[in-house]
Amino acid sequence: MIKCIIFDCDGTLVDSEYLCNLGLEIKLRDYGVESSAIDLMKRFRGGKLATILEAIESEHQIKLKEDFVSSYRSLVDELFEKDLKPCEGVNTALTEIELPKCVASSGPLEKINKALSISGLSKYFNGKIFSSYVVGSWKPDPGIFLHAAKEMGFQPKECAVVEDSQAGISAAKSAGMRPILYDPNNIYDHTLYSHTINHMRELQGAIT
């Protein structure tokens, strides 16, 4: 029986994946790299920023400046302030599902909190926010989810994880939790996943 729900943040609670990759698209233009936000999103969804940047440097034979990450994050903050919104149906789902909830994201804690605050979702989690940058574990490693379950007071088998990336789903499986793929744009082959939803209104059925 599922007693706790662990949510990813970017692309799951908040519609931020495009904005994050738009920021990357804009910053990479300074280095002569023309990669669209959509292509970057498809390729690197759910990945660790440092790993993504290493791949880009290698592929395009460039060296990013030391301040690239800080300037990129500042740009993303601006994009968030202007355009960030909750994913469709999230507010209703979080209101109606009364199980304990938390967020476990690969993003920095400050970024997660900012995204939840701007989108008006902070109130649903009572400070139960866990970041890979604090835990020292990045998906597909299950460490971030195991840490979240322990802090929430539940066994892994009692937890469901809602994720929009393959890395997150792999981490949930490795943690021994119920993985629920949120795929509103039908990016993935749903026959490969045991639990999938296209809209947050389907979440209640996926955890019962």
TrEMBL record:
| Entry superkingdom | Bacteria
Q: Does the keyword Hydrolase apply?
A: yes
CDD domains found in the cross-reference section = HAD_BPGM_like
> Which SUPFAM superfamilies does the UniProt entry name for this protein?
HAD-like
| InterPro entries according to UniProt | Beta-PGM-like, HAD-like_sf, HAD-SF_hydro_IA, HAD_sf, PGP-like_dom2
* Kinase as UniProt keyword: no
**Any idea which UniProt keywords this protein has?**
Hydrolase, Magnesium, Metal-binding
Please name the GO terms that the record assigns under molecular function.
hydrolase activity; metal ion binding
Name the cofactor(s) required for activity, per the record: Mg(2+)
Entry-linked PANTHER family? 6-PHOSPHOGLUCONATE PHOSPHATASE
Q: Which family does it belong to?
A: Belongs to the HAD-like hydrolase superfamily. CbbY/CbbZ/Gph/YieH family.
Q: What is this protein called?
A: HAD-IA family hydrolase
Q: Taxonomic lineage per UniProt?
A: Bacteria, Pseudomonadati, Pseudomonadota, Gammaproteobacteria, Cellvibrionales
